[in-house]
Design goal:
Layout: H1 2-15, E1 23-29, H2 34-47, E2 61-66, H3 77-86, H4 107-113, E3 117-122, H5 129-132, H6 144-152, E4 158-161, H7 174-183, E5 186-190, H8 194-197, E6 203-207, H9 230-244, E7 249-255, H10 257-263, H11 267-290, E8 295-300, E9 304-305, E10 309-310, H12 330-338, H13 345-356, H14 366-380, E11 386-388, E12 393-395, H15 396-409, E13 411-412, E14 418-419, E15 423-429, E16 439-440, H16 443-452
Parallel strand pairs: 1-7, 1-8, 2-16, 3-4, 3-7, 4-6, 5-6
Antiparallel strand pairs: 2-15, 8-15, 9-14, 10-13, 11-12
Family: Belongs to the alkaline phosphatase family.
Binding site for Mg(2+): 30, 128, 130, 254
Binding site for Zn(2+): 30, 259, 263, 302-303, 418
């Protein structure tokens, strides 16, 4: 399959084909730098034993994009999302606007005005910075009520994600948000049951349905059951667009949990999220196989989060075999610890064995056990420090445990924040060769515009 993909791309370049895709898929791995990709690929190759690379690495075009914003060498998701959506640089914190607060139109809006179907889906809140950049125009990414006002009037055919950020401050206010969407012709549905409720509808807002966890759909590594996933949303969005606009459409799909896991420096969770992302890409790729001369798939990232590396400071050989013994994300384990402070050390040690594989499958030295036990006792005595990241504050005990796990895997991080590193770009399909050089992030929507014939 890989040789066929490469041959097709080479033929496009050799013949100078004028590509004009009818179906455009734009996948964004939030926070997904090359370290994140290589960690997932290393696990795929060494632990799962797969000879083929992960799907996006099989695409014929592989390049990179620069991500700096108008205000900093290190972008945030709002400025990066705006760049990818509109082709314009802006200041960190702003969505769909230039630095002087002039609203700029996204490629999604332009395509909708030209008769394309449009779908925007994410594994985090649907009004988070990246998806909002495609339909909203606000000077502050945290203006969630106003962002939803814009979303309800976008006319987009499908919007999907975990929930609305409005729930974080006032769950009751969510009713007004959803009523506004309904007033503008949207069917609002929630959870797995919502997949049935949206069938045959014209415009859809589909959420994970949990107002108490609006930030994301949950981590793959936590093996949550009976919940909406990014793959569900991607497949539902594609099905809906084929119903309402079968001749041409644009989809943006964001894997937002990669960023959340990387902010927490949770290496194993990042690996599982990148692999989960491949399942959503697979939905589009299967469609591409049926329409290879009419489809373009682009996979990129808005920025690098965490400065993740395969390899740590002491030269330890990376080994990911024990990741499959990990049944809890750092966030889940942190919450578990805080709710079980009455545990004895032996009880907590057993819990770590069951949920993280420590001692049962992962050898712990006497020194490592002493460090972890000391942190556990400090947590019980409320003398524990904390590790604060963008989305979560971790108790020091959890932080130490996961630092040890990362080190044993040979996974390193340089920060809990974003970096200015370039990010990968993978592409396949009509016009994919246009993305083969080093891109600035604003070049990506500009090239899409050229390929589909937008002014």
């Amino acid at each position: 399959m890989k040789k066929i993909i490469l041959s097709f791309a080479s033929l496009c370049v050799a013949l100078g084909m004028s590509a004009s895709p009818k179906y455009v898929f734009m996948f964004i791995g939030d926070g997904m730098g090359m370290g994140h990709v290589m960690a997932a690929e290393t696990y795929n190759r060494l632990s799962l034993g797969n000879e083929d690379n992960i799907l996006m690495m099989q695409f014929p075009v592989a390049s990179m994009a620069l991500t700096y914003s108008a205000s900093s060498p290190v972008t945030d998701s709002a400025a990066a999302g705006t760049a990818l959506a509109t082709g314009r640089k802006t200041k960190n914190g702003m969505v769909g606007m230039t630095p002087d607060t002039t609203a700029v139109v996204s490629i999604a809006t332009q395509l909708k005005e030209q008769g394309y179907g449009v779908g925007i889906v994410t594994s985090v809140a649907y009004d988070d910075a990246t998806p909002a950049s495609y339909y909203a125009h606000r000077p502050n990414r945290n203006m969630f009520v106003e962002i939803n006002h814009d979303g309800a009037r976008s006319g987009f055919d499908f919007i999907g994600g975990a929930y609305t950020h409005v729930a974080e401050k006032n769950i009751d206010a969510c009713a007004n948000v959803f009523d506004d969407y309904r007033a503008n012709g949207y069917t609002v549905a929630h959870g797995l049951k919502g997949l049935k409720e949206i069938e045959g509808k014209e415009k859809v807002l589909l959420t994970g349905g949990n107002p108490h966890s609006p930030n994301d759909l949950g981590y793959t590594i936590d093996s949550l059951e009976n919940v909406l996933t990014l793959r569900h949303l991607t497949a539902a969005c594609l099905s809906h667009l084929l119903q309402v606009s079968p001749d041409r459409f644009f989809m943006m799909v964001e894997a937002g949990n990669i960023d959340h896991a990387a902010h927490g420096n949770d290496g194993a969770a990042v690996v599982k999220e990148v692999l989960n992302f491949q399942q959503s890409i697979r939905v589009a790729y299967d469609f591409y196989l049926q329409h290879p001369e009419e489809t373009l798939i682009i996979v990129t990232a808005d920025h690098d989060t965490g400065g993740m590396t395969v390899g740590v400071e002491n030269g330890r050989t990376p080994t990911f075999d024990d990741i499959d013994y990990r049944h809890a994300s750092k966030e889940k384990f942190n919450d578990y610890c805080l709710s079980h402070k009455d545990f004895t050390w032996e009880e907590m040690k057993q819990a770590m064995s069951n949920e993280l594989g420590l001692w049962s499958h992962i050898e712990m030295s006497e020194k490592e056990e002493a460090v972890v036990k000391e942190a556990f006792e400090a947590m019980k005595a409320n003398a524990d420090g904390s590790q604060k990241t963008l989305y979560k504050e971790f108790n020091n005990f959890s932080a130490i445990v996961f630092d040890i796990l990362n080190h044993k895997n040979g996974i390193g991080f340089t920060t809990f924040s974003h970096t200015g590193n370039p990010v990968p770009v993978f592409a396949i399909g009509e016009g994919c060769e246009e993305f083969s050089n080093v891109n600035n992030n604003i070049d990506i929507p500009a090239k899409i515009r050229d390929l589909v014939g937008l002014d």
